[in-house]
From TrEMBL:
The keyword DNA-binding applies. Keywords: DNA-binding. This is TetR family transcriptional regulator. The keyword Nucleus does not apply. SUPFAM superfamilies: Homeodomain-like. Residues 9-69 form the HTH tetR-type domain. InterPro entries: Homeodomain-like_sf, HTH-type_TetR-like_transc_reg, HTH_TetR, Rv0078-like_C. GO terms for molecular function: DNA-binding transcription factor activity; transcription cis-regulatory region binding. Transmembrane segments: none annotated. Residues 32-51 bind DNA. Pfam families: TetR_C_41, TetR_N.
Amino acid sequence: MNKRTEKMAETRAKLIQAARQAFAEKGYAEASMDDLTSKVNLTRGALYHNFGNKLGLLAAVVDQLDSEMAIKAQMKAEAVENEWESFLMEGIAYIEMALVPEIQRIVLLDGPAFLGDPSQWPSQSSCLQLTIAKVQHLIDTNILKEVDVEATSRLVSGAALNAALWVAASATPEEVLPKAIEAFKTLCSGLVKS
């Protein structure tokens, strides 16, 4: 990596970190351009050059956080030995992260409000591809019924995402979380071979 490329990567990282903090504390709408640039000694020009505008910066922050969520959910799933329970745990872990204030505000509330349908985000598309592979494996190992892999993967991913969105938007997220998890588990249980 040459010095210019390193400097650009460093600038992007600084802006994303500043934005994560500002968006988490104030929300996307209330975070000013100064909140996003002055704390890291950068200019608005640096923001525009790297992200196009404030919305482009939000998209980068959401992508980073959503990708981190997927990694954390996968790590929790890998800690469970039973393949079916591991698959369920990944979805449950994703739903549980709706209680994390930074994730709740940026990814699950402001993200959909300003970036649109989360199922169309690049990070969600990556998660879907991983889910497709896992569902295919569970069918191949005789754990799941013979179902359409893509349809099932989209529905399971959508259920976890929508459960997390519901928890985040609720006036009482801690009370809604166990209901969301129980419903997610019940829905998914219909896929298992008897």
